[in-house]
């Protein structure tokens, strides 16, 4: 009986090893080498998110191993994203992709997936746990630093600026902000007049800028982490009869159009929506049991005024994200 008991315990121990590995095992639970995956998305509030979804769907369609997928939308609410992730786990997915709302808040749900033996790929921003398979990202601190360094150079190291960020607590927005502040706070000649969270919203930025313009008679520069905010901020300055100033943003076509049309110095640092497609590739490797990097970087470079003139697409929608359209036409969003 002791020998039989020992054998049973040994078998049970071996059977639990993949789960203890935390998402590192071969996840072919569909039984035929194909996979069902889930994507927990933070939200769909702007056209960037539409391009993110387009790149995801194009990559899924090009991956024969994926036969079923789910997409959830948390509407930027961490509590909704936690519920979404738990629901995806209950559906029996073989792999999970997460674009996080607030990294600290949703970490327990990600850990539950990982501890259940599901490979988890997070993209876009850091998460407050190490229980994930891979993080697919740009250098978001470097993103903010690069924008800030360009603006400091434009202002010859001296000037009064305002800072406009995306959604408070969002990992992407906070890391960009941290990188930029490191530069500004180490440059004695730069004075930060104000910092506001504008939620990557055109209308909210306009409202905030009206108050900022009334409060500060002199604004020498704008650091904004997205064209969704630098573009309306510039429009607000123009409408108030104030001079257009050096500014930063991303690859939003309307922002690039405005810079070129008004001959205003700006700096584009793309936040590529290829992050979602690259996450699909990394997840498939992990589900197959292949080794993947804990952090998988996508290299991106910024562009000053001269390059922006060649980069802009005047024939396309203002809401187009330049460079993120290198996918089959049937997957491109209608804007």
Structural overview:
The protein has 335 residues and is of the alpha/beta class. The protein has two domains: 26-138 and 273-300, Rossmann fold; 140-268, Rossmann fold (3-Layer(aba) Sandwich). The protein has eleven helices and eleven strands. The strands form three sheets. It has a six-stranded parallel β-sheet, sandwiched between helices. The longest helix is centred in the N-terminal third of the chain and has 19 residues, at 2-20. It is elongated, with a radius of gyration of 23 Å. The termini are far apart.
Q: At the fourth CATH level, what is the homologous superfamily of the largest domain?
A: Response regulator
- Total number of helices: 11
Uncertain ranges: 1-29
The class by helix and strand makeup works out as: alpha/beta
- What's the architecture of the largest domain, going by CATH? 3-Layer(aba) Sandwich
Broad CATH class of the largest domain: Alpha Beta
Euclidean distance between termini CA atoms: 71 Å
- What is the helix content? 40-55%
Strand content: 15-25%
Number of domains: 2
Quickly list its features.
11 helices, six-stranded parallel β-sheet, Rossmann fold, three-stranded parallel β-sheet, 335 residues, 11 strands, alpha/beta, single chain, 44% helix, disordered N terminus, 2 domains, elongated
